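Bench log. Compound arrived from synthesis this morning; before running ITC I wanted a structural hypothesis for how adenosine-5'-triphosphate sits in the protein. Inputs:
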Amino acid sequence: MEHTRRDKICDLLRSKIYDREVTVKGWVRTKRDKKTFGFIELNDGSTIRNIQIIVDFATVYGNTLNNLQDQNTFANWKEITTGAAVCITGKLVESPAAGQPVEIQAQKITVYGTADPESYPLQKKGHSLEFLREIAHLRPRTNTFGAVLRIRHAMAYAIHKYFNDNGFYYIHTPIITGSDAEGAGAMFRVTTLNDQQPPKLPDGRVDYTQDFFGKMTNLTVSGQLEAELGAMALSLVYTFGPTFRAENSNTPRHLAEFWMIEPEMAFYDIHDNMDLAEDFLKFLMQYALDHCIDDLEFLNKMYDNELIDRLRSVIASRFERLTYTRAVEILIASGQQWEFPVSWGTDLQAEHERYLVEKHFGKPVILTDYPKDIKAFYMKQNDDGKTVRGMDVLFPKIGEIIGGSQREEDLESLRRRISEMNIPEKDVWWYLDTRRFGTAPHAGFGLGFERLILFVTGMANIRDVIPFPRTPKNAEF
Ligand code: ATP
Ligand code: MN
């Protein structure tokens, strides 16, 4: 196929250089006929906005529509339906029409691929998000998913930019892990053993020493433990990769496969950790406002009229910082009726988190110093013997967006804790080694990427902010 240069629609819409020849390639959003000319609205994914193309039939086909009916060239015009992929060369002109800066007067149209209007699922606009989940292979072509995917990309880029600009190193932690000590959730087994007749130990359990890695392995629930190893050498590191939880939680905020950003910082205490989390989140929101405003305005109009105001208000706010114990007092004193009752020692539910953020403080909240029994073994223990230096960042509409802590750097305290929690030392000997050799205070946190994207896009369901959601009973695409 002849290769023609392509002008990106986002560039043309910004261009002030008129009356020149341009070539656009993309997918038809709509087409309209008049007697002697037609209009095409074309989108190429470079922006949420379409470019309008005016097709003067005499120019492109050498005739009017009526006279074209039986001629071969008309097939080309008939093939141009919603969803078809086309290449159009023409003249970029200043548009006389309101609401668009430029349009293209077509000279030549090539159809790369048709989309039969009878069977193309996106022929009509206005499908429900639930329906679009069933056609996840095609939904990137809608305005909504185009916007979400562009914002998702911008946030991934901004995350790397933030850390790079602040002296962090990106460290790739493994996806297949031999450690199941993290305790963040149920895991997916990774095995190449024969699933009909796996080798068995005398006591009937599967003999994983004969498995691919010579031991039982799973998909990781977090890159943190390995990131800590990096921080103990490079000082400032972060991971950004897929994580997996085999929990049967069918909520709008949980996926079985999601991406997590986990910075880990040597010589940071929990206050430094909170400062970093707050600065990082505000940077990301500001980046979205600065670079994705067309997409944000679309989502603000279509799904969440408070989206842009909410982003601005989070950037302007000082996150409220208080202890778990104080939060429980506030929740009890609130007189609210809860689905899950609150008392000191229980894990807070989304309803409690959102009450604190949305009703009580009216801004993001960071809770610290949680009861040790509801948190992981690695969190630094406080002198009260009851709480640990964990911190959760709670956001409006989302609840927990970040979970983190100062880590226990003292070898003996850590060993006591893992033995209390029945974690075999032989499973975490390598982790304990960092406390044996050159241990130092350090801290870190995990930001759920899709929870961030939920917040930044204003979408309500986490299935709509990842291209191919993995949830219980769903892995079709
Ligand atoms: P939650 O209580 O909301 O289920 P968690 O406390 O189990 O979350 P962590 O283990 O602290 O989660 O993970 C760190 C971050 O990863 C969370 O703050 C959240 O943003 C995100 N996260 C956790 N589980 C999921 C999930 N199943 N799907 C998407 N994001 C998740
Ligand atoms: Mn958490």
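What the model suggests: The chain has a mean pLDDT of 94. The chain has two domains: 9-123, 139-186+221-464.
ITC booked for Thursday regardless.
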